[in-house]
Backbone:
């Protein structure tokens, strides 16, 4: 079921890259901010983008190296847990914002986690 793992890796990494490219526009959407607040929001968007990109690359790399071992299973479990935690946070925060990409995050994170779980443990 490596194809599910590769799809999850690509979905997660692409969403991370989308976060990185959207950072400037998202920060600008907040209007006038203090320099500290602008830096904090920028940092948080970059951190989430990098985290998602890293999870996608991790899942892809582990799958390429061999998806059947204990280390691969542990890496997939960490990726699933992280994505589900991000999904919960997004559900209680960004999901309540009218801007569609914010509302998509919990679904994309959950879909990626499910695909990893199915691909790793079926």
Residues:
């Amino acid at each position: 079921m490596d194809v599910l793992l590769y799809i999850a890796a690509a979905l997660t990494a692409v969403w991370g890259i989308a976060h990185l490219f959207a950072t400037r526009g998202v920060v600008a959407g907040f209007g006038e901010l203090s320099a500290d607040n602008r830096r904090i929001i920028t940092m948080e968007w970059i951190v989430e983008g990098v985290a998602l990109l890293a999870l996608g690359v991790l899942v892809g790399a582990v799958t390429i190296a061999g998806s059947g071992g204990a280390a691969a299973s542990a890496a997939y479990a960490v990726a699933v847990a992280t994505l589900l935690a991000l999904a919960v946070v997004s559900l209680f925060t960004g999901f309540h914002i009218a801007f569609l990409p914010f509302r998509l995050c919990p679904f994309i994170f959950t879909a990626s986690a499910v695909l990893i779980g199915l691909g790793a443990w079926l």
Remarks:
- Residues 35-65 form the longest helix (31 residues).
- The two ends are 7 Å apart (CA to CA).
- The chain has a mean pLDDT of 93.
- The chain has one domain: 2-121.
